């Protein structure tokens, strides 16, 4: 091992010693990157574009912020629908190997979309709702926030995502603290993050998609209600009592 490490020099890595190993590494790196972009970027984008064009709704999102990202997400959703449809057909016809491969591809797309929803979409929604409920504290209006979003959309979305992630993190920490104080079974409707058997990826794989959607909507209602009660209502009461 030490001999191999001594032979691996910068000249060999950069191809300055006259060997063609460097060109082979460059070829494989460029090929794999191009394949990755083609499979996970180019194809979903055009599938989403064709889907929106087929339903004649592409003009509705034309020119909006993050147009490419929205079209790509539509493409991934369409790929998931096609995979589960072909998986059902091949299972009915008895093609087990093809059905298993399609089911595996569907699980990959399903977990990827659920991770996007849990890590990106949910914190952004919480951050936007936090911003809306705290407008009176900063003497701002919704029009000011919309103008800020149209001026710098990427920065605005990132700030709302960061605020939402901080809120979700501290809410989860508060729930963990409550579980240590309250008796077991009081917070039965909330998932126990300290449970050694808790595996979110495994739940994403085994639980049906409709149950994930229902859990996502329930989390939005619960988090939104807490923000409304703990932030908006006190701010409005204080502003009405002390104008």
Q: What report would you give on this structure?
A:
- By secondary structure, the chain is mainly alpha-helical.
- The chain has helices spanning 2-7, 10-14, 21-54, 67-93, 96-133, 142-151, 153-181, 200-206, 209-241.
- Helix 5 (96-133) packs parallel to helix 9 (209-241) and helix 6 packs across helix 7 (153-181).
- The relative contact order is 0.06.
- The model is unreliable at 1-6 (pLDDT under 50).
Termini distance?
74 Å
Report low-confidence residues grouped into runs of 5 or more: 1-6
User: What is the arithmetic mean of pLDDT?
Assistant: 84
For the secondary structure, the number of strands is 0
How would the blueprint of this fold be written?
Blueprint: H1 2-7, H2 10-14, H3 21-54, H4 67-93, H5 96-133, H6 142-151, H7 153-181, H8 200-206, H9 209-241
């Amino acid at each position: 091992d030490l001999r191999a490490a001594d032979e691996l020099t910068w000249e060999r890595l950069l191809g300055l010693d006259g060997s063609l190993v460097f060109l082979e590494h460059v070829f494989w790196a460029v090929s794999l990157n191009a394949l990755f972009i083609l499979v996970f970027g180019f194809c979903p984008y055009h599938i989403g574009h064709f889907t929106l064009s087929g339903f004649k709704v592409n003009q509705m999102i034309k020119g909006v912020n993050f147009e490419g990202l929205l079209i790509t997400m539509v493409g991934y959703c369409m790929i998931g629908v096609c995979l589960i449809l072909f998986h059902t057909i091949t299972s009915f016809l008895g093609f087990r190997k093809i059905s298993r491969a399609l089911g595996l591809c569907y699980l990959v797309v399903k977990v990827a979309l659920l991770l996007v929803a849990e890590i990106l979409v949910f914190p952004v929604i919480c951050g936007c709702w936090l911003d809306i409920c705290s407008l009176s504290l900063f003497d701002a209006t919704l029009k000011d926030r919309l103008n800020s979003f149209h001026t710098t959309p990427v920065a605005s979305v990132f700030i709302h995502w960061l605020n939402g992630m901080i809120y979700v993190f501290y809410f989860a920490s508060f729930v963990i603290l409550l579980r240590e104080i309250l008796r077991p079974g009081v917070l039965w409707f909330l998932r126990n993050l300290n449970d050694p058997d808790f595996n979110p990826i495994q739940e994403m794989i085994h639980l049906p998609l409709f149950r994930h959607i229902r859990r996502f909507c329930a989390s939005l209602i619960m988090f939104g209600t807490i923000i409304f009660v703990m932030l908006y209502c006190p701010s409005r009461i204080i502003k009405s009592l002390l104008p």
